[in-house]
């Protein structure tokens, strides 16, 4: 059975509306993608780190509940698991975020997951460019590429954590170069490439590094996929929370790759039918995540 390995940050999001506590839930786009895939009975492993504190227990228990393997989560004893306080309006518009975290000096001492040819490895967010874990994390990604796994990179740039993009561009370019599919949104390509047009971002930048680019444009409610010879677009449902949509889309793409038997060797020459399958499944999973009570794609009946 082909495996899906996601590498991302463990954090607990504490949400406030009009300065009043509203709800707390495990956060991170890739963490929630892992939970969605685990719910649908795919063989999923999450690679990360969490303290042996109560917050860490909440996140690890959440992943376990959703069927995600946690043997590659480093449970450290010195420090505490990342928590993010998010303050938003009544309508859900984020006004301010405060992040609390404390990691040990020696961090990301994870047990490497087994990676076989045509498995899928998904990485990204700030975690993939964070100097604290970058070297060790990227070693796993390089090994996955050498093992002929399919690599999906989702930058998901958070402007509150990246104040100067030039400082992290070398890491971003390395991430692009090793990836078979790059998944972005309009905000990410504007931050990284100073372009709002995803077609131009692919033609002028991403295509030099990666064969395939999927971009979610919430302003036009569309998902566009660019390959070497053509581009395709599908309509995206309106989503109040872009992160929920993104987590569903990433999970849906990974699921479609496995369900339709696409292999690493196919990534360079995806057909129009392949792209249509990927995009349509991305839409289905995104809609399912938005409709679910906890915004996690629910198990099939």
UniProtKB/TrEMBL annotation:
InterPro entries: Ribokinase-like. It comes from Heminiphilus faecis. This is Carbohydrate kinase PfkB domain-containing protein. Gene3D superfamilies: 3.40.1190.20. It comes from the Bacteria.
